[in-house]
């Protein structure tokens, strides 16, 4: 974070621009482009605006921590483009009129950006920009911005990435060939466990990456998973409930409890003081990244005959939950397991048709054996 001692200069920079001349506005824009390099660019813009509101340094620090790292990365590039745009126009980048904002979005549109990218750009500006003369109107709520974004959507619509999903039976069939688990290499065992977790829990890569051996337990022939970290779906008043996956005695080769116990035993002496479940298969056996888990899942999909040019690792979430819905599992159970608070998200983005009926957890595995 920028030290509190830097506040006076920021406050001076963010003083009223009501009577600012174009030259002064340009100087302020140029000064804004030379922000401190030790702090995320997205946070710097917000910090400058908040200093102008005469807030305390502690309050500003808390507010600046309200954006997740992934959001900051999304916003950073568009905010830099905005600063450059305002510098060229000799305009104040922190207090602009609606016409300037629309001109900026139009410039991005001319560079062939689609609706999703422009919507992110609009949101990034909303995080720090005040519309001159309209302090009570949020940028995204302005009627011209709404109409502009609707025009972008109609001319360059954002369509679902997948119109259908793949059959989980293909992957389960391949996972069954990776047996017995005691004879598998650590790499194949890791891939098998990661894919079983992805399918039987309906979770995304990030959630698999955050699995902690201290929060995973086996009780009454059931794998109980808890999360002690913030997830993408975490928000005030809502966090992912415990996920319970029962053992599957009908087929030990596909029983996640059996695979999990073998993996934990195999890696116990390798993980050292670390507690993340998935670790590297090579020394020094540190916890793996989200991308590594994605590569493991992608490798299993490819080996199972899934078209990886069409489907990314994240598609396991859609494939698993769609299979559960086709097996007549209740929507409430699907939402609770996957971590959604509303069925609108599931129905709009994840519930896709599959060629063959599949199932979820025990029901999913029963469907595999009946096929």
TrEMBL record:
Lineage: Eukaryota, Metazoa, Spiralia, Lophotrochozoa, Mollusca
Signal peptide region: none
Region (Disordered): 1-35
Name under which the protein is recorded: Tyr recombinase domain-containing protein
Domain Tyr recombinase: 158-366
Pfam families given in the database record: Phage_integrase
GO biological process terms, semicolon-separated: DNA integration; DNA recombination
Segments of skewed composition (Low complexity): 1-16
Keyword Methyltransferase recorded: no
PANTHER family, sorted: CORE-BINDING (CB) DOMAIN-CONTAINING PROTEIN, PHAGE_INTEGRASE DOMAIN-CONTAINING PROTEIN
PROSITE patterns per UniProt: TYR_RECOMBINASE
UniProt entry keywords in alphabetical sequence: DNA recombination, DNA-binding
Organism: Magallana gigas (Pacific oyster)
GO MF terms, alphabetically ordered: DNA binding
Domain of life the protein comes from: Eukaryota
Gene3D superfamilies, A to Z: 1.10.150.130, Intergrase catalytic core
Record carries keyword Magnesium: no
């Amino acid at each position: 974070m920028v030290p509190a001692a830097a506040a006076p200069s920021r406050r001076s920079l963010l003083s009223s621009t009501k009577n600012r001349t174009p030259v002064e506005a340009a100087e302020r824009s140029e000064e804004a482009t030379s922000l401190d390099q030790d702090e995320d660019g997205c946070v710097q813009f917000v910090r400058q605006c908040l200093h102008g509101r005469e807030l305390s340094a502690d309050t500003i620090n808390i507010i600046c921590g309200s954006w997740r790292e992934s959001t900051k990365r999304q916003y950073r590039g568009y905010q830099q483009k905005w600063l450059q745009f305002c510098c060229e126009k000799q305009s104040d980048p922190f207090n602009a009129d609606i016409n300037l904002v629309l001109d900026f979005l139009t410039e991005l549109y001319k560079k062939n950006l689609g609706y999703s990218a422009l919507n992110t750009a609009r949101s990034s500006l909303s995080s720090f920009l005040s519309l001159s003369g309209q302090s009570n109107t949020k940028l995204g709520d302005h009627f011209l911005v709404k109409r502009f974004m609707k025009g972008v959507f109609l001319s360059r619509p954002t369509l679902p990435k997948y119109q259908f999903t793949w059959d989980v039976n293909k992957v389960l069939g391949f996972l069954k060939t990776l047996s017995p688990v005691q004879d598998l290499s650590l790499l194949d065992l890791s891939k098998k466990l990661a894919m079983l977790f992805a399918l039987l829990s309906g979770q995304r890569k990030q959630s698999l990456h955050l699995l902690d051996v201290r929060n995973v337990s086996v009780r009454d022939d059931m794998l109980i998973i808890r999360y002690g970290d913030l997830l993408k779906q975490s928000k005030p008043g809502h966090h992912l409930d415990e996920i319970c996956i029962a053992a599957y005695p009908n087929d030990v080769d596909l029983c996640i409890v059996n695979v999990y116990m073998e993996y934990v035993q195999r890696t116990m002496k390798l993980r050292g003081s670390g507690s993340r479940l998935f670790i590297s298969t090579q020394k020094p056996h540190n916890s793996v990244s989200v991308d590594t888990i994605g590569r493991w899942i992608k490798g299993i999909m490819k080996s199972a005959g899934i078209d990886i040019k069409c489907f990314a690792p994240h598609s396991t979430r859609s494939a698993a939950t769609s299979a559960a819905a086709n097996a007549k599992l209740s929507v409430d159970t699907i939402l609770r397991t996957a971590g959604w608070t509303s069925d609108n998200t599931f129905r709009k983005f994840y519930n896709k048709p599959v060629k063959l009926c599949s199932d979820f957890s025990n029901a999913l595995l029963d469907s595999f054996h009946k096929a």
